């Protein structure tokens, strides 16, 4: 839109100095020719923009012609009164802008059309001005007033366009939410593929073969939605926003997501086939819960596939604790500090499958200390320490406890 000042045809203008009989004569001729001028403008518009649709009103007349004619008549009436700045007729030009928005077009062509209309109108008004001998300074003011009037028309159209854009964005978000709800449902009714295809088509989303589902933690309650790439479905209505990432293994996709999610934290579940999106969501939710408890790194967006061990070992918490009480029962009477050292040594031994030097190197202690502890471990567990199944359970429990930062603690409390 133009930022020119708003000249008015007032008592201090050259237009006001024009004798009233000349003004009335000018206005009378301009009003009589308003329809012809409107048709001329519309014909030129159709020649320059043949792709624009022709919309008829209830009387079968082109709405564009009605709007152009009405805009001319209001402007001419203003010239005759010479009071204040031109008042834009409400309604039609707002509707023109709204129509451009609803049909997915930009306002560029509409504004170009308005400028064309002003040029053609000015030619006609200049001719009428010569016929009734309006002085040039007054006609120059008329040009300025015409462009101010144009600004008002554009402003109405911009408002209508913005209204349509907001309405369409709201409708798209509503349809997108319904698509995501179906996509992330644990159980589908009927044929989910057909339903997904229909809903995806309504928002212009191409069904991918694989997806990953993310759960986000807001950096602040009023945080602006992250600028995710096109194709990523995002629902900000949840307390913890959700997103569906199509083809998450595509080249460059993780890096693009990381950039788009700068300042946010959360988790992105593992890639799964489209029908299994709910499974990816479950893992992302599990990862976020662990982040909130401080068991996974906070302050960033994590990929579940990079934290598989933690997710697998920390999720069945009650089962792991019960297994710890049973597997680590021999440590129960060793005392907290000594029991923890034996547990750490046992885990290092299970992980290295080596002798005292390898275990000592991992723990940063003397090999003789490790030999002493390993003898104690064998005394406590006996032949069970050689059972592959028992060793697997011990390593499982001790790894889970290490992730929580409390190796051997459950057994000591027990």
Provide a concise account of the structure shown.
The chain has 414 residues and is of the alpha+beta class. Helices cover 59% and strands 6% of the residues.
Structure description:
By secondary structure, the chain is of the alpha+beta class. Helices cover 59% and strands 6% of the residues. Strands 1, 2, 3, 4, 5 and 6 form a six-stranded mixed β-sheet that branches. α5 packs antiparallel against α6 (136-183), α12 (336-352) packs across α13 and α12 (336-352) packs across α14 (367-381). The longest helix is centred in the middle third of the chain and has 48 residues, at 136-183. Mean pLDDT is 83; it is low at 1-7.
Query: Which stretches are low in confidence, meaning pLDDT under 50 for 5 or more residues running?
Result: 1-7
Strand content: 5-15%
Helix/sheet category: alpha+beta
Order of helices and strands: HHHHHHHEEEHEEHEHHHHHHH
Number of strands: 6
Mean pLDDT: 83
N→C terminal distance: 76 Å
Number of helices: 16
Helix content: 55-70%
Largest sheet: number of strands, sense, barrel closure: 6 strands, mixed
What is the CA-atom radius of gyration, in angstroms?
A: 38 Å
Broad shape: rod-shaped
Structural topology:
Elements: H1 20-32, H2 34-48, H3 63-81, H4 92-102, H5 108-131, H6 136-183, H7 192-202, E1 210-217, E2 233-235, E3 242-246, H8 253-260, E4 265-268, E5 272-273, H9 277-292, E6 301-303, H10 308-314, H11 317-327, H12 336-352, H13 356-363, H14 367-381, H15 388-404, H16 409-413
Parallel strand pairs: 4-6
Antiparallel strand pairs: 1-3, 1-4, 1-5, 2-3
